[in-house]
């Protein structure tokens, strides 16, 4: 007897294959892949639903609960997984932008990998001396992000960097984006 797979099991399988492909041959120049839909490289994105910005998150180091919607300055949001080498390279770039931005921009890394837990994130942030906020994305937030930005936001090696302006509008930047482009995009929405 053949067991039928659920839609979720099939999506997880496809996403895993794409994630592996992204780690092996990911685009690192920050350019838009052909076939991508939606805005990139700092273009304003007209999102149909920004409810994900009101989802409660918990900073894994401080235990502070926060929402992106409550932050009154630009937010640089990066979805990642602790195992992803492409994400780590992007985080090294984020570290430069973080240092240059001072207190004018909030940086947040959220894991979209269900296997990462707060202790894993805390260890990752501390071992790499990253000073910004880290949180675990609740399933609903990941689902809402996928609805707004496409499946690639849940595929760690391909996930865009999302800049959230204080008015709630967003701009997306491709994985591999430079620190200068991140800084310029965040500054443009102040």
Describe this structure in words.
It holds the Pfam family AhpC-TSA. Residues 34-44 have a biased composition (Low complexity). Residues 27-48 are annotated as: Disordered. InterPro entries: AhpC/TSA, Thioredoxin-like_sf, Thioredoxin_domain. This protein is α/β, with parallel strands linked by helices and 190 residues long. The chain has a single domain (7-188), classed as Glutaredoxin (3-Layer(aba) Sandwich), CATH 3.40.30. It has five helices and eight strands. The strands form two sheets. A six-stranded mixed beta sheet has the order 1-8-7-4-5-6. Helix 2 (85-101) packs across helix 5. The termini are far apart.
Write the layout of secondary structure elements.
Elements: H1 7-25, E1 44-45, E2 57-58, E3 65-66, E4 75-80, H2 85-101, E5 106-111, H3 118-127, E6 133-136, H4 139-149, E7 161-164, E8 170-173, H5 179-188
Parallel strand pairs: 4-5, 5-6
Antiparallel strand pairs: 1-8, 2-3, 4-7, 7-8
What tags apply to this protein structure?
190 residues, alpha/beta, Glutaredoxin, six-stranded mixed β-sheet, two-stranded antiparallel ribbon, 8 strands, 16% strand, globular, disordered N terminus, AhpC/TSA, Thioredoxin_domain
């Amino acid at each position: 007897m053949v067991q039928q797979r659920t839609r979720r099991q099939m999506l997880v399988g496809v996403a895993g294959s794409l994630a592996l492909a992204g780690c092996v041959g990911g685009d690192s120049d920050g350019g838009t892949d052909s076939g991508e839909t939606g805005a990139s490289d700092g273009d304003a994105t007209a999102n149909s639903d920004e409810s994900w910005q009101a989802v409660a998150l918990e900073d894994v180091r401080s235990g502070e609960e926060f929402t992106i919607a409550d932050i009154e300055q630009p937010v640089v949001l990066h979805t990642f997984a602790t195992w992803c080498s492409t994400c780590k390279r992007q985080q090294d770039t984020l570290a430069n932008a973080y240092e240059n931005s001072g207190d004018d921009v909030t940086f947040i890394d959220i894991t979209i990998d269900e296997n990462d837990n707060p202790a894993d994130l805390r260890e990752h942030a501390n071992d790499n001396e990253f000073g910004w906020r880290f949180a675990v994305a609740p399933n609903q937030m990941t689902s809402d992000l996928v609805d707004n930005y496409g499946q690639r936001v849940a595929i760690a090696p391909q996930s865009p960097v999302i800049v959230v302006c204080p008015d709630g509008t967003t701009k997306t930047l491709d994985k591999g984006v430079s620190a200068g482009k991140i800084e310029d995009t965040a500054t443009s929405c102040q």
